[in-house]
Design goal:
Helix content is about 45%, strand content about 20%. The protein is of the alpha/beta class and about 280 residues long. Strands 1, 2, 3, 4, 5, 6, 7, 8 and 9 form a 9-stranded mixed β-sheet that branches.
Length: about 280
C-alpha cells in the first residue's frame, strides 16, 4: 500500500520548447512520493529525445509514445488510466507550479472527506520563464448543494482542472472528445460528485498563448476544419451527457441550462469584441 502516492499525468504533443521547464517543476516537488506519466501524442519535434534523456536519472517517470495522433481529450484520459496513486494531477507540457504545490494540495485534500479537488493560486504568464500575475477566479463550491455546485462549475475558466484530484472520483467521470473545450463538460459533472476547495499558498503558473479556435483544433487534434456553431452544439451535448452519466436527468439538465445561459450572457461581449477588432 502506498496511500500518499500522487500520480502526475503529463500529456504532450510537440511540446519540446517548453517541456523541460514544466518537467523540472514537477521533479522538484517537495512531496517526493510521485509518479510522472508522460504520454507523447505522436510528436514530430524532439519531444521523444528530451523525455528519454530523463528516464535514466528519474525512475519515477513512465513514458508512453503514441505513433498515431489521438484526440487531446483521449490523451488526457490515457494518463489518468495509467495512474497508480490514490491522488492524481494533470500537468500540461507548458505550465509550471511552485515547489510545495503537491504537498500543500495533498494535505488540504486529505483533510476534506467530501472534496474531490483542491486547487491553489492561479498565475497567468506570457513567458515560460516568468511567473506572471495572479488571476482571481471563484471556483470553490464547498457548502453549496449539488445542483448549485453543478451550475457554478459551468465556467470557461477551468484552470483548477490542474489541481489535485482524488483518483477514484475523477475516474468515475466520463471524458468526451469535445473540440471546443473538452474540460468544460467535465467540471460540472465533477462538481456533482464532490466539492472543490481552495488551498492558499500553492502556485500554478499558466502559460497563456493566444490561439484561434481553428488553430487550437489543428494543434490539439490535427483537425483543419472547425465550425464554431457545430462545436458549440457539441459542447452543450457533452455537458448534458457528462452530468447525466454521474447524476441523472436533473443533473444533466442543470448543467445544460447553465452552460447555455453562460454562452447567451457572453454573446454580446464576444460580438462587440469582434465588431471593434
Amino acid at each position: 500500500m502506498n496511500p500518499d502516492l500522487v500520480s502526475i499525468g503529463l500529456p504532450v504533443r510537440n511540446g519540446a520548447s517548453y517541456l523541460r521547464a514544466a518537467l523540472e517543476s514537477i521533479r522538484a516537488q517537495s512531496h517526493r512520493n510521485i509518479e510522472i506519466i508522460i504520454s507523447d501524442n505522436a510528436s514530430t519535434d524532439n519531444t521523444h529525445e528530451l523525455v528519454t534523456s530523463y528516464l535514466d536519472c528519474d525512475t519515477r517517470i513512465k513514458y508512453y509514445r503514441h505513433t498515431d495522433l489521438i484526440p487531446v481529450a483521449d490523451n488526457f484520459a490515457f494518463v489518468l488510466q495509467q495512474a497508480s496513486g490514490n491522488f492524481f494531477m494533470w500537468a500540461a507540457h507548458d505550465d509550471r507550479r511552485s515547489v510545495d504545490y503537491v504537498e500543500l494540495l495533498l494535505a488540504s485534500l486529505k483533510g476534506s472527506s467530501d472534496s474531490i479537488l483542491s486547487f491553489g493560486d492561479f498565475y497567468s504568464t506570457s513567458s515560460i520563464d516568468a511567473n506572471g500575475s495572479l488571476v482571481s477566479f471563484d471556483f470553490e463550491n464547498k457548502g453549496l448543494k449539488q445542483l448549485q455546485r453543478v451550475s457554478k462549475a459551468c465556467n470557461p475558466m477551468c484552470g483548477h482542472l490542474y489541481g489535485l484530484w482524488k483518483t477514484k472520483d475523477l475516474r468515475s467521470i466520463p471524458i468526451y472528445p469535445c473540440k471546443w473545450a473538452w474540460d468544460q463538460p467535465l467540471m460540472p459533472a465533477a462538481a456533482y460528485i464532490g466539492t472543490f476547495i481552495y488551498t492558499p499558498g500553492p502556485r500554478f503558473y499558466y502559460l497563456s498563448r493566444a490561439k484561434t479556435h481553428s488553430e487550437r483544433a489543428l494543434y490539439q487534434d490535427g483537425k483543419s476544419n472547425f465550425n464554431k456553431y457545430l462545436c458549440l452544439l457539441e459542447l452543450f451535448y457533452y455537458t448534458f451527457l457528462a452530468s447525466f452519466k454521474v447524476g441523472g436527468l436533473v443533473a444533466g439538465l442543470c448543467a445544460l441550462i447553465s452552460m447555455v445561459s453562460l454562452h447567451i450572457m457572453n454573446f454580446p461581449k464576444h460580438f462587440l469584441a469582434k465588431l471593434f477588432r
